Amino acid sequence: MLWPLYGGEGLTAGVMGLVRPWRYILVTRSLLGLLNQEELEAVIGHEMGHVRRRHLLWYVFFLFLLIVLAFALSGVLEWRLRLSGAAELFAGAQGGPTTSGVLLLQGPVVLLMVLYFRFVFGAFMRNFERQADLFAFRLIGHARGLISSLEKIARRSGQSRSLPSWHHFSVAQRVEFLAQCERSPGLAARHERKVRLMLAWFIIGTMILLSTGWVFLGQPIEEDRAILRRAAVHYLQGQNLYQAGRVGEAQAEWEAALKLAPWEPVLMNNLAWLLVTKEAPTAEEKARGFELARRAAEMMPQAFVLDTLAEAYFVQGRYREALATLDRAFKARDVEDHRDHLEKQREKFWRALERN
């Protein structure tokens, strides 16, 4: 099919389609006008080589693996950062990550993608292109047409013969290799073996990477999940004790839960509420409750969390700040679940402000 790349002015050809009924060889009009019959046959043979060697399927596999690695790396990084106590990195607007959090999460992923394309995907693309050249060479029986087509394209496009790219050998390298193959037929077979070995080692390396990744990352994550389950037990026990009016025991359970999961905003919020609303809290308890409520609200700006922060302001006598925080709570997504309580809180805060 004709390929209207750059209005048909591009000097290139390609193949599209993973399965036979929807597979096409694409050629630009300018390339058709530039090449003679022998050269055009060589170019078509090159594109057929990509199909026969199943390069397109390999490309899909390489891209799929990159996506898996990128998602796995991003998930592990976020998990480890949260566990390390860097939860504030994920306390941006609407509870999303901050700029620093995004950079710490996505920076390594972008670096992985650059390195993968440059040194893995690029290496296979260069050698797949050479493999396609060899297919055309063997199909036609000589390299004359392919060499002259490469030279013509280089001259017409103005590209340097000696300049390689991350996904292609240079024209000079491709021409020299084809010429060597004509002189030494065994060279083509050696390149085929080289590509098979590259693919075999790549598959073996992928399996090793996934297995060692599980050993060094998966197992620690399972251990962390076990810690979370222990924290959940303390949290639920604290809930039951608090509802039963056994505030001191509930505080001990929530302290234990927060010690196990110090990044968890719900635990911060519950302990903060207990500290600022308990009977006769000390100044130290008020201060700690406020700090926990502040951190929880940064990480999870929902109505019930902002309500705790407003209460922490209130017990410190900072009534205007309590009202301003409550206004934020009324704008939160979950406000309808807490509206009646928040209305009572606002009345309480206004009465205190009017008295003072």
Keywords:
356 residues; two-stranded antiparallel ribbon; mainly alpha; single chain; 13 helices; 2 strands
What is the strand and helix layout of this fold?
Layout: E1 13-16, E2 24-27, H1 29-34, H2 37-52, H3 55-83, H4 99-140, H5 144-157, H6 171-183, H7 186-243, H8 247-260, H9 265-277, H10 283-299, H11 303-315, H12 319-330, H13 339-355
Antiparallel strand pairs: 1-2
Strand portion, in percent? under 5%
How far the N terminus sits from the C terminus, by CA atoms, comes to 83 Å
Low-confidence stretches: 91-95
Radius of gyration: 33 Å
Main sheet overview: 2 strands, antiparallel
Outline: elongated
Work out the number of β strands: 2
Helix content: over 70%
Describe it.
The chain has helices at about 30-35, 35-50, 55-85, 100-140, 145-155, 170-185, 185-245, 245-260, 265-275, 285-300, 305-315, 320-330, 340-355, and strands at about 15, 25. It is built from 13 helices and two strands. The protein has a two-stranded antiparallel ribbon. Helix content is about 75%, strand content about 0%. It is mainly α and about 350 residues long. Strand 1 (about 15) and strand 2 (about 25) form a beta hairpin.
